[in-house]
Amino acid sequence: MKQLIILTIVAVALIGIVVFLYTRNSGEVPTLSPTSTPLPTVLGSKVTVTYSDSGYGPATVTVKKGDTVVFDNKGSKMMWTASAVHPTHKAYPDSDIAKCETPSQAGIFDACRGYGPGELWEFKFNEQGTWKYHNHLQPSHIGTIIVE
């Protein structure tokens, strides 16, 4: 019983601190509701590219060296994001479809498999340049990542 009372006191104190910090700067307590504005697609060093039945969007994304691009499949079909050029996937340095299913797979710009609707695949870009990519399962769906 004592532990429950202590936990309740700690929880109330933490809530009070959070409310104090928010109201100190803005004068009002923020509220979250189902209609709140969604988070932006840029979160620190991550940028989201959405895949739909019509392709990748935005079609061109600019990131900094070391940033991660998250490919989010919002379409109804499989997405297999990979470096250009179809079917070898060798445009991004050291990438090659032949490296799928090998220990080298972690470092290549190639998902190496299809990702279904609602699934994500991400890749960290460590090489500066302009990198074209495509959906291996729908090669006409293309995009470009510019790494500065």
Furnish the topology, listing elements before pairings.
Elements lengths: L1 H25 L15 E2 L2 E7 L2 E3 L2 E4 L4 E6 L7 E3 L36 E5 L4 E7 L2 E10 L1
Parallel strand pairs: 2-5, 4-9
Antiparallel strand pairs: 1-2, 2-3, 5-7, 6-8, 8-9
Task: Describe the fold and architecture.
This protein has 148 residues and is an alpha+beta fold. It has 2 domains: 1-36, no CATH class; 42-147, Immunoglobulin-like. It is 17% helix and 32% strand. It contains 1 helix and 9 strands; from the N terminus they run αβββββββββ. It has one helix spanning 2-26; strands spanning 42-43, 46-52, 55-57, 60-63, 68-73, 81-83, 120-124, 129-135, 138-147. Strands 1, 2, 3, 5 and 7 form a 5-stranded mixed β-sheet that branches. A 4-stranded mixed β-sheet has the order 4-9-8-6, with no helix packed on it. It is globular. The termini are far apart. 22% of the residues are buried. The model is unreliable at 18-23 and 28-44 (pLDDT under 50).
